[in-house]
Write a structure and sequence with these properties.
Blueprint: H1 9-17, H2 22-29, H3 33-38, E1 49-51, E2 67-80, E3 92-98, E4 105-109, E5 132-146, E6 152-153, E7 161-168, E8 173-180, E9 186-190, E10 195-199, E11 206-212, E12 215-220, E13 225-229, E14 234-239, E15 247-253, E16 256-270, E17 285-300, E18 305-309, E19 315-319, E20 324-328, H4 329-332, E21 340-346, E22 360-366, E23 371-374, H5 379-382, H6 390-393, E24 406-408
Parallel strand pairs: 4-24, 19-21
Antiparallel strand pairs: 1-2, 2-3, 2-5, 3-4, 5-6, 7-8, 8-9, 9-10, 11-12, 12-13, 13-14, 15-16, 16-17, 17-18, 19-20, 21-22, 22-23
């Protein structure tokens, strides 16, 4: 039998450098003292500052006192090492953002949105993560506006961003960022140039950007998909259009890139005038976009096409506001999930206290039946989200040294 503690230090160093996730590296280093000494902890990613995105062309004033701050978040699935009951077999999904300034703390957020959570009264202020199985399912990058006075606006820039980190030297990380400009065009930022470039090639506005197999991809609202060369700012066709749906998402699952096509239906919905005066005579009508179905396609690069998928099997696809990720139902939702799409969007809910319209909420699309339900009507799925399960909040999982690793709302 192999004594894992005696593996050569050089081999352990090579393995540890292949672990992109800081959470994977923490668990790697916690195996034993020899593994810990062989693997250097990752340097925290700097809180990058980027200039303002230009109206068109190339950005000016790269050293301006206003701009964007780039932050990184990780979507994690957390499970106990040794489940003691059937309920312990369910994973818990959470988005974490590490504070890079001051004490080492993290902010907990909803995995599908930007919503922050207030911690339950008995939630440990510090968690021993070695007592859990923790796996990173995806990453999310956010651009926050800042100005000369240090003000940070959380929601000024709402488009999704993806980042590729290149080789780093002793002083800083080199990276490339891809996002969607307000015009619907693709915009690229290279850290060594400290300037934005907006790429004018745009038959239709782009819906999503994605990093897959080390390359940047962008898909427009017709499904036309391109590879973005960040060195030349050139676009190359990767897949021909997929017509039909209203919003396209790119996602990776089991090593394959998938396109998820969301179909929307526009409906007239009775509204409540709310603060209007009592003699308000006009009947208020709102136009409500409702998610009605999804189609899923697999990327076939050699054919430059998307091929429709008729069955997802064990896969669960998650579509967030600024990120997409996938998971195996057998891992996080045994005997319940699989072949489904969990998403943020407008979900029709007749039981809502708002009347006939629930508004923006989370929903579950069952791929086998074609049925969409609000998340709250699927108690099996709600176990994946906030609030945390009892085995997380147990004092047995608290750190002996508060402050080393903590969580805050």
């Amino acid at each position: 039998m192999v004594d894992w503690a005696t593996l050569p230090k050089d081999l352990l160093d090579v393995i540890s450098k292949c672990l992109e996730s800081s959470f994977d590296l923490v668990q790697f280093r916690s195996v034993c003292s020899s593994w810990r000494s062989a693997a250097e902890p990752k340097r925290p990613l700097p809180s990058h500052r980027l200039p303002i995105l230009p109206d068109n062309g190339v950005s000016l004033f790269p050293d301006s006192a206003v701009g964007f701050r780039l932050s990184q978040r990780s979507i994690l699935v957390v499970k106990p090492h040794e489940p003691h009951s059937e309920a312990d077999q369910f994973g818990w999904l959470v988005k974490v953002e590490e504070n890079l300034i001051g004490p080492r703390t993290v902010t907990l957020r909803d995995p599908l949105s930007d919503r922050r959570h207030s911690l339950p009264e008995h939630f440990p202020r510090s968690l021993d993560m070695s007592k859990f199985k923790v796996r990173e399912l995806g990453r999310e990058f956010k651009l926050h506006y800042f100005n000369l006075f240090g003000d940070v606006v959380e929601t000024l820039f709402l488009e999704k961003a993806v980042v590729k980190y290149l080789d780093s030297d002793a002083s800083e990380y080199r990276f490339v960022l891809l996002t969607i400009h307000v015009s619907g065009k693709v915009a690229v930022f290279r850290s060594w140039d400290r300037a934005w470039t907006v790429i004018n090639d745009m038959p239709s506005p782009y819906d999503d950007v994605f990093l897959y197999d080390g390359r940047f991809f962008a898909v427009d609202n017709n499904g036309r998909t391109v590879v973005v060369d960040f060195t030349s700012s050139k676009l190359t066709l990767a897949a021909n259009p997929v017509f039909g749906g209203d919003k396209k998402f790119l996602i990776e699952s089991c090593g394959e890139m998938l396109l998820v096509d969301m179909y929307l239906s526009v409906e007239e919905v009775d509204g409540d005038p709310g603060s209007a005066e009592e003699n308000f005579e006009h009947h208020v009508i709102y136009m409500n976009e409702r998610t009605v179905k999804f189609k899923v396609f697999k990327f076939v690069e050699r054919e430059t096409s998307w091929v429709e998928v008729t069955e997802l099997g064990d896969k669960m696809l998650f579509l967030g506001d600024d990120c997409t990720f996938s998971a195996s139902a057998s891992e996080i939702l045994p005997h319940c999930g699989g072949s489904s799409v969990v998403f943020n969007g407008n979900v029709f809910n007749e039981d809502s206290s708002l009347g006939t319209m629930q508004g923006r909420d989370s929903g579950v699309f069952d791929f086998s039946t074609g049925k969409i339900e609000p998340l709250y009507k699927r108690p099996d799925y709600t176990k994946l989200f906030w609030p945390p399960p009892p085995w997380i909040t147990s004092l047995e999982n608290a750190e002996d040294y508060p402050g080393e690793t903590s969580s805050q709302s």
